[in-house]
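Design a sequence for this backbone.
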């Protein structure tokens, strides 16, 4: 049976899809997506997965560089928008699905994975990280970008969102996320913060 938070997340993002790239907050979303993709230092040999890709802005951006770019999202409406916006680009692919279970990709299929402003919606974070590790190729890297729970304002928002937004599982501190990445097998975890440490980019690699 599907987790009720997953059902709530699908409804939440379906409703947001039409204004995801144009409404309030869109500029900041684009800013962190651009920074997260940049931190992967993508090359023309890379194959990218954007986990919880929304309407695919980061996928379209990365497709200008990488060999192949794939977006994966829970929301059918987000995926429909993403496919429409990338209709002229043959090097991108969008798949609909739930991160709570096994990802529909092969072992080591991707050399780079990005996930921006979405990890707090994942109801089984360690299971999802383990799947991210499985589909990452040796020497591949992952960047998870999200609000930093150690920041006082984010801590307060986290408490409120857990009460008010059914799809909100919880923000994590960068230290916790780095420990979780290490626990599933990733190495060389590091963090960079912006906005007065309220938002963090956590990067890790898969050893060869």
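Sequence:
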């Amino acid at each position: 049976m599907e987790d009720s938070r997953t059902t709530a997340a699908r409804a939440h993002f379906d409703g947001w899809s039409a204004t995801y790239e144009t409404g309030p907050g869109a500029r900041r979303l684009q800013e962190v997506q651009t920074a997260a993709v940049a931190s992967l230092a993508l090359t023309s040999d890379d194959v990218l997965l954007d986990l919880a890709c929304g309407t695919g802005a980061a996928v379209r951006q990365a497709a200008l560089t990488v060999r192949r770019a794939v977006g994966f999202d829970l929301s059918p409406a987000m995926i429909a928008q993403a496919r429409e916006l990338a209709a002229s680009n043959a090097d991108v692919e969008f798949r609909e699905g739930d991160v709570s279970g096994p990802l529909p990709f092969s072992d080591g299929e991707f050399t780079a994975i990005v996930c921006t402003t979405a990890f707090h919606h994942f109801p089984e974070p360690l299971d999802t990280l383990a799947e991210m590790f499985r589909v990452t190729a040796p020497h591949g890297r992952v960047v998870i970008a999200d609000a930093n729970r150690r920041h006082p304002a984010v801590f307060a928002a986290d408490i409120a969102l857990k009460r008010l937004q059914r799809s909100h599982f919880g923000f994590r501190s960068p230290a916790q996320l780095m420990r979780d990445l290490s626990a599933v097998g990733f190495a060389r975890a590091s963090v960079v913060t912006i906005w007065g440490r309220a938002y963090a980019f956590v990067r890790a690699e898969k050893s060869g």
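The chain has a mean pLDDT of 96.
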